[in-house]
Write a structure and sequence with these properties.
Rossmann fold, 6-stranded mixed β-sheet, homodimer, 3 domains, 7-stranded mixed β-sheet
């Protein structure tokens, strides 16, 4: 039935006019207001209308009593009404010439209740009969910065290369907000919920062929057509880098999936095997997904697994080396001739010149830092550099201005300044008095083109995942792995 | 040689007078200032003296030209001088009647350089000859809030039940600061560095018999006397709960250990086996150590592994259920009669009453939240409750006042209010404009006696580690595991 709609979904991302139907007129913090805030904040430059039988005005925008009362044509509707009213809204939409409705509304099949499952079936039936496409229900819809469309006012306004398909609205918001803090930008993000009409396969096929999307990140809970999904993944992975987080891989998680989006879950083993076979990066959490995105976008591909780690703190050096080697990366010892070069301008006490290079005392000398990084990056044994700062280990009562300046001076070196790729571990602080200085340092790193990780483990894990993926891909190209690809 | 000192180390923690020898007179942000800031901030109420040949004054405190110039007796010295001057300082200390010297100074055996290794041997020789105990060198020394002694002004002033033995200074600072934000307080923390005299065994034996210490957390890089360490661990584990993080478990990490504290490392397998056998909780990172401390201190021991998870967000519910079940905890389905009870006052749309309980819509109603938690906590299938809030998934441009009030109202329920233990996952924000509100919410939870975790994975992991430990311990008591205990 779905396959009768073979046309591109392009129109979903570039509506000429929008109506928000069912926005609350009385509660400023109500969830339905988010969509209006998104349109205002993103300066949506085509007509949009608010609809609520109560009428009135919100933030200077007239509220129309019904969809029919709105002037002009509308091609995209965001439905914020009760589930019981959904089918009727679709009928009204048909009269108004609407092409697609995104139902944010919950209370359909995800409840597991029979009458609610029936409500969803009815909705699909009406929509198909009227030729209207549905996104959702029970989801946040579309974020497309290029067309000034956003379901959160907090998202970045600039476009980027990452396309996201997320069954969950909350997870898509979390992903975009947290990834944006690390410099990741998005082409199109779709939170698609119950997928009663437009589903993960439609969206995957679309993004695989979308010129603005270079990387596809998937949060999938369940799928309805396994064979088509497999084909769509395989095609997408040939054209783009694909990262997948499968939710519901345990019994408890699968039950939550059944509750949430009314789709079937698979086992961990099934999904991991599928990802490996199709050349997809499989991740276990949203945090890991963001770390992988940051690595793909900001770390020029290292030619191998040998890291030189550089930072301050003997104990921190031990722990970061363990984290890296535990995850299949290597922290090779610096040869004596390299140590001798650094020792020429680096005091003995408090600076341990092995690998990691523990520059505890000399760290406050930006010139020495630069010279040392230059020397280790030119060593043939180095494939990439990782610098690390853990403000939480400083004994001062709070991060001082001097320390922040030091952070900034150290990391103002742009990606490409050294002949090897550079990554940065900078642990954030949850203390308000420190958060600002550290966030500024993080932003400085990002604008210098550096991947920033929040912990030793996160950096090691993401770099390893990306290296694993590229190693598999090059074997695939060389044909060594072709058997498992068919 | 060490064993000639059989007396208690109690005097180290309660010095009657202190001299800081080698504190900088010119650079306010220099690391040597930290110790003075600690004494001032902690209102050290016995005499303390500053010593630097340059003389002068720091923050109203006279700087004496030498140790001999200080009036009165001194029983504890913090050495901040160059490594080359260390032995001479010990000679001077002997004349002054000093009982112990903590050398913060680096530049000894940890450099791996022959002449520096010799400097350390000479230091030990002089100290033993003069009957003076040495802490370090290359470490931060002692934090003991009870006696107003702290190597950081940022540490909590209140005492608590956790004793820490950490080879690394930076790791001890990190541990105390980050754990304190979660409500963990300390009896005594010792950063002991190169352990040229007082070592991990002395300290472990001391804390095992210290009435103020209920839990011992160890960060160990290498040990010099394996048999004694094993015996000390075994004895300590019989009296206290012991948690160990072993640094240097990989080749790269072990090389960093060799650089840092000149001690030998062991393999991961060796350490894990030892911990299991001795009834010690083994952790892989400082973050994990803090999570375990929080669990031991704030989560009344659950009688089993069945969790009811309660929060907002369908996607978040799926991910937290996966994290819990992936780590051997169980998220059992709620039976229909429990669901029916909750459904009486909980709207269908946007609230999924399974387990996790996804209270996306009803979450803003504190009364409904309380009633639901009460119902699920009284269900016989529940061993403990976990509530979760992930502010990063909120679409608003920043966490609003209403949202914060909601957080606070939801979590003002004290530990013990329900018949089952309650844990809380509250993800912090690194955004300055959000950090304050969330930190206040975290502090509210702590003052209500709740364990707070920063992520789904962290909560699941720590609760599982503690349950594993208590299960092993009860088998041990029952004699089922006695064979491996001998």
């Amino acid at each position: 039935m779905k396959n009768t709609h073979q046309h591109s979904l392009d129109f979903l991302f570039h509506p000429n006019s929008i109506a928000l139907v069912g926005i609350t007129t009385t509660e400023p913090w109500h969830w339905t207001r988010t969509f209006l805030e998104g349109l205002i904040e993103f300066e949506f430059d085509r007509p949009f209308y608010l609809v609520n039988p109560k009428g009135g005005e919100i933030k200077g925008h007239k509220v129309h009593a019904s969809l029919q009362d709105t002037p002009g044509t509308i091609d995209y509707v965001i439905g914020l009404i009760n589930a019981q009213l959904a089918s009727r809204l679709v009928e009204e939409c048909a009269e108004k010439g609407v092409r697609a409705v995104h139902f944010c509304t919950a209370g359909f099949s995800e409840t597991g209740e029979e009458e609610r499952i029936k409500l969803e079936s009815e909705l699909v039936e009406v929509a198909h009969r009227k030729g209207i496409r549905i996104i959702g229900p029970n989801c946040m819809g579309i974020y497309c910065p290029q067309s000034h469309l956003s379901f959160s006012p907090a998202f970045p306004k600039e476009s980027g290369p990452v396309g996201v398909i997320s069954q969950s609205g909350g997870n898509s918001i979390y992903l975009v907000r947290q990834a944006a803090l690390r410099g990741v930008l998005f082409s199109k993000v779709i939170s698609y919920g119950n997928a009663c009409d437009i589903n993960e396969n439609d969206l995957l096929e679309y993004l695989a062929n979308d010129a603005d999307t270079k990387i596809i990140a998937l949060y999938i809970e369940g799928i309805k057509d396994g064979n088509r999904f497999r084909r769509a993944l395989e095609e997408a992975a040939k054209k783009k880098t694909v990262i997948m987080l499968k939710g519901g891989i345990t019994e408890g998680g699968a039950r939550a999936v059944a509750g949430h989006t009314a789709a079937l879950a698979g086992s961990r083993a099934t999904w991991d095997a599928l990802c490996k076979q199709l050349g997809i990066i499989s991740v276990g959490s949203l945090e890991e997904m963001i770390d992988v995105l940051v690595t793909l976008l900001f770390l020029p591909l290292p030619r191998g697994r040998n890291a030189v780690l550089f930072g301050a703190g003997g104990g921190a050096s031990v722990l970061i080396a363990d984290e890296f080697e535990n995850r299949g990366l290597r922290v090779p010892p610096l040869p004596p001739e390299i140590v001798a070069q650094i020792r020429e301008f680096t005091p003995v006490a408090g600076n341990i010149l092995r690998n990691p290079v523990d520059y505890s005392q000399a760290a406050m000398n930006p010139e020495a830092v630069g010279r040392t990084l230059n020397i280790v990056s030119r060593w043939e044994g180095t494939d990439f550099l990782v610098t690390f700062v853990r403000p939480g280990q400083f004994p001062a009562s709070q991060i001082s201005e001097i320390q922040v300046n030091f952070l900034m001076s150290r990391f103002s070196m742009k990606q490409g300044h050294f002949p090897k790729p550079v990554a940065m571990v900078l642990e954030p602080s949850i203390l308000p008095q420190e958060a600002e200085a550290i966030l500024a340092a993080i932003r400085g790193c990002i604008s210098s083109g550096l991947p920033v990780y929040y912990s030793f483990a996160a950096a090691a894990n993401a770099i390893n995942l990306v290296l694993n993926h590229t190693e598999r891909q090059s074997k695939r190209v060389l044909g060594e792995d072709s058997g498992s690809c068919s």
